[in-house]
Amino acid sequence: MSCFRLENVSYRYDKALVLNGIDLRLEPGEILGLFGHNGAGKTTSIKLILGLMTPTQGRVSVLDGAAGDPHVSQHIGYLPENVMFYPQLTGREILNHFARLKGASLKQVPELLEQVGLDDAMNARVKTYSKGMRQRLGLAQALLGKPKLLMLDEPTVGLDPVATADLYRLLRKLRDEGTGIVLCSHVLPGVEPYIDRAAILTDGALKAVGDLVSLRRQANMPVTLSIEPANGSSALEKAIEASSAGNGLMIKKDNGRLQVDVRPSEKMALIQDLLSSGEVQDLGIHQPTLEDVYVHFIGSGGLAHRGGAQ
Amino acid sequence: MNSIWTIARKELSDSLRNRWLIAIALVFAVLALGIAWFGAAASGQVGYASTPATIASLASLGIFLIPLIALLLAYDAIVGEEEGGTLLLLMTYPLSRGQLLFGKFLGHGLTLAFATLIGFGVAGIAIAVLVEDVAIGALAAAMFRFIVSTILLGWGFIALAYMISVRVSEKPVAAGLALGVWFFFVLVFDLMLLGILVASEGKLSPELLPWLLMLNPTDIYRLLNIVAFGEGAQLSGVLSLGTDLPIGPAGMWFALVLWFVIPLTGAWALFRRRRI
C-alpha cells in the first residue's frame, strides 16, 4: 500500500497550468520533503492528495483509495500553513471537536496536548495563544486518530529551536512506526537531516526527486575540499595542479587554507594524489547541502544556458 | 449523521457561549409581553386586549425582527469559516460539504427554535397566568401556531443567508447582501405587489394575484397567524389578497416549509460548486 500515488497529474486553474505531468509517490515509513518556490504547485499538490480538488488530468490514489473519500480522509493528518482555529474556544474544546469529526477517541486529546507541550494551556481560549502555541495545537490536530499519512505545511513556523527539535524527533518516531510523512518547508537546512527523499517543484513541474545522494548526483555539483597545507600553500597548489592535469580547478585561499571545488567523479582521485604528495596537513570535505542542490534545480529553470546543459 | 450532529452541537454551544440564544429569547419575551399589555394603548386602554389582536400585532412586528435575527445568526456560516481559516481544514476531515452545511443548519435552526420557544413560551405562560379571563385553550393554540410558524420563518431566512454565505468570499459582502434580502422581503416586496396591483388596473388575472403572496415567506407567515382566527380577522394592505387564496392553512404551512427546504437545497448545490 502506498501512502499516495500521483500518476501524470496535471491541474489547470482557469486557463493557467498549475501542475504539469507530476509523477510522485510516497511509501509508508518515509519522510518526503516537498520543496519549491512560492507558486510552484506545492499547495496544489497537497490539495489534490487531500481530495479538495480533482486533477484535470492523471490519476491520484491515496492509501489505496480515492482522494477525498471519507474512509481515506480519516487516516490523513494535515497541518495547513498558518493554521487557524476558533478563537473563542479552548485548545481542548477544539481538539475534542476535531476528534469527533475524525471519529477518533476523545481519550487521545489530553495525551496529544501533552505531547505537543500544551497541557498547561489547554483550558485557555485560543485567542490568547501565541503563534507557536497555535502551531502546536495544529500539530496535535494533525496527529488525531493516528494517521497513516501526515502532511505538514511549514510545521516549524513560530516554533522555538527546542520545540522544532522535539517536532522532528516526533516525526522520526512516527516514521519508524510506519507513517508516511510529507514535509513542506522553506527552512531547508532544518529539514535536511530528517527527510528520506526530496521532491523539487518549479512552475508546476517536478524538477527532481530522490534522496540527497541521488539528487547530488543528478545535479553533478562540485564538492568543496578544504585543505590545510603542510609545507606552504604554493607547494600545495602545485600538487593540485599536477593532479588535475590542467583541468583548471577553482582554488580559493581562506585563512591559510585552500578551498578547492572538484567534480564528484574526480574527488577520490584528487584526494589520493594529494595524500600521497605529502602536502596535506588536514582535509575537510563539504558536500553540497540540500539548499545548494535546491538552488541548483530552481535556478536552472530560469537560466537558459544552464538549462540547456542538463 | 454523526458529523452533522458534531457540527450542529458546536454551533449550538457557540450560541450559548456568546449569549445569542438567551438574548434572542429575552427580546422575544419582552416583545410579546410588551405587545400583550400595551398593544391596545392606541385605543386608549392599557391591558390585555384579545388573543387575536395580540397575535396579529406580534406577527406584524415579527416579520421585521425574525428575518433579521435569522440572517444575522447565519450569514457568516460558511464565509466566516473560510475567513477564519478553518474551512480548508474542515474539508480535509471525513466530512462532506453537505454534512457541514446541514450540520450548521441544524445548529442555527435549533438555536432559533429554542430561543423562540423559550421567549414566546414564557410570554404565553405569563399571559395565561396574569390575565384573568383569557381563554387558555385558544391562547395555547394561537401561541403554538405562532411559535411554530415563527420557527419556520426563521429557518427560511437562515437558509437564504446560507445561499449568500456559500457564494461570497468576504464577510462584509455577505452581511450587506443579507441586509438586502431582508430589505427586499420585509419592505420592498409588498410595496412592489401593491404597485403592480394598482398599475395593472385590474387587467391581471385575479386568480394569479393571490399566489404572488406565496413568493414572500413573511406574507405567508402573517396570513397564517391572522387568517387562522377566521372571519372578522383584519387583513390590511396586500394581505387582503390572501382571502382569495384557494389554499387553506395546510397549503400555507406547506409553502412555509418549502421556503426553507428550497433555499437550503439551493445553498447546498451552490456550496458543492464552490472552490476551496
Your description of this structure?
The complex is a heterodimer of chains A (310) and B (276). With 310 residues, chain A is α/β, with parallel strands linked by helices. Helices cover 38% and strands 28% of the residues of chain A. Chain A has twelve helices and 14 strands. Chain A has a six-stranded mixed β-sheet, sandwiched between helices. Chain A has a four-stranded antiparallel β-sheet with strand order 2-1-4-5, with helices on one face. With 276 residues, chain B is mainly alpha-helical. Chain B is built from eleven helices and no strands. In chain B, helix 6 (97-130) runs antiparallel to helix 11 (249-273). The longest helix of chain B is centred in the middle third of the chain and has 34 residues, at 97-130. The interface between A and B is medium-sized, with 25 and 22 residues.
Distance between the termini of chain A: 34 Å
Order of helices and strands of chain A: EEEHEEHEHHHEHEHEEHEHEEHEHH
Oligomerization: heterodimer
Q: Using a beta-carbon cutoff below 8 angstroms, give the protein chain pair with the largest interface and the number of residues from each chain.
A: A-B, 25 and 22 residues
Tally the helices of chain A: what do you get? 12
Mean pLDDT of chain A: 88
Layout of helices and strands:
The complex is a heterodimer of chains A (310) and B (276).
Chain A: E1 4-13, E2 16-26, E3 31-36, H1 42-50, E4 57-62, E5 65-66, H2 70-73, E6 76-79, H3 91-102, H4 108-115, H5 131-142, E7 149-153, H6 161-176, E8 180-184, H7 188-191, E9 197-202, E10 205-210, H8 212-219, E11 223-229, H9 233-244, E12 250-254, E13 257-262, H10 264-277, E14 280-286, H11 290-302, H12 304-309
Parallel strand pairs in A: 3-8, 3-9, 6-7, 7-8
Antiparallel strand pairs in A: 1-2, 1-4, 4-5, 9-10, 11-13, 11-14, 12-13
Chain B: H1 2-17, H2 20-38, H3 51-74, H4 79-83, H5 87-91, H6 97-130, H7 136-165, H8 171-199, H9 209-212, H10 217-227, H11 249-273
